[in-house]
Amino acid sequence: MDEIKSILLVGTGNAAWHLGLNFKLNGVLIAGIVARDVEKGIALSAALGDVPVYGLEDKLPEVDATILLVRDDAVVEVAGKVAQEGKLLVHCSGSIKAEAIKSGEHAFAVAWPLQTLQKDHPRPLFNTVVAVTGSDAETEQLVAGLFGKISNRVHVMSEEQRSVMHMCAVWINNYTNHMYYIGHSLLKEKGLEFSMFFPIIEEHVQLLHEQDPEKLQTGPAKRGDMGTLSRHMALLKDHPEWQDLYNQLSGSILKTYLKK
User: Fold this and answer.
1) Which helix (H) or strand (E) holds 53?
2) DSSP alpha helices (H): ranges in the chain?
3) Strand 129-134 to 108-113 pairing
4) In sequence order, what are the beta bridge partners of 153?
5) What is the pLDDT of residue 117?
6) How many Cβ atoms sit within 10 Å of the Cβ of residue 197?
7) Kind plus residue range of the DSSP H or E element containing 126
8) What domains does the chain contain, in order, with CATH numbers?
């Protein structure tokens, strides 16, 4: 097989909507949707041009590749139900090894988009990094070719590299967003708008294109300003769990910079 021309989507959540629409818009034939919830399957089918909807127990059409777009804790179970002998099976979870979906004599791979995927806000993925790891080099190139139709930033990498990327995505995106949530909550308590911080957030992201995070660190912990840190802790007296978090983060920054 020179390229993947037809696919079967398994799932009806955010990833299935987002990737499904991108594949459709870029000429990939979607031969069907496999859904636990028929109503959700029908809704996705309508968005993709009324493609057939199947249940997990149905006889599935033969395609070049079946793409698993289900929750991480359901990947292995669902893979065992939809895998077709001799046909390529791909899952899209960053934290699960490619070989976890091997259940017979078939090629397998993982293609993980480094992006927050929301079905209510679908957008082009041309600039989204997609990390690919497969059962062999030929499979990796096939899967990279498929996802290269929707992204200009497809990277074939090892299991360890992708696992580290997934862990770092939690640090860089998920944990940072929790900091935004805390700041948003504290500002709201005092009748202040979170939007006032958009300029500093946007400026920092822009600077990250030019400099390493180490050089961009500022604030009282970087300076060793214990007086300001103490005053901030006092302001958080009604939120002891956030006091603990503030103290731990400040301690990490102090250790990082005051030893230099």
Assistant:
1) strand 53-54
2) 14-25, 38-47, 75-82, 137-147, 159-169, 176-189, 198-208, 213-216, 220-223, 226-235, 240-258
3) antiparallel
4) 129
5) 87
6) 14
7) none
8) 6-157 (3.40.50.720), 163-258 (1.10.1040.20)
| Distance in angstroms (rounded) separating the CA atoms of residues 100 and 112 | 14
From the list 223, 221, 224, 225, the residue with the least C-alpha distance to 245 is: 221
> Under 8 Å CB-to-CB from 13, ≥6 apart: which residues?
69, 70, 71, 119
Q: Give the list of residues 6+ apart from residue 247 with CB closer than 8 angstroms, or none.
A: 233
Neighbours of 36 (CB within 10 A): 14
Nearest to 64 by CA among 48, 87, 86: 87
Which residues face 154 on adjacent strands?
A: 130
What span, in angstroms and rounded, lies between the C-alpha atoms of 165 and 136? 21
Q: Which residues pair with 111 in a beta bridge?
A: 132
| pTM, 2 dp | 0.89
DSSP 3-state of 54:
strand
Residue 72 near residue 96 (C-beta atoms within 8 A): yes
pLDDT of residue 158: 96
The encoded tokens of residue 222 equal: 């970087």
The CA-based dihedral angle spanning residues 205, 18, 147, 72, taken in that order and rounded to the nearest 10 degrees: 90
pLDDT of residue 1: 76
Question: Which long-range contacts link 250-255 to residues 24+ away (Cβ below 8 Å)?
Answer: 250/220, 250/221, 251/221, 253/217, 253/219, 253/221, 253/222, 254/221, 254/224
Cα separation, 195 vs 174, whole angstroms: 19
Low-confidence ranges of the chain (pLDDT < 50): none
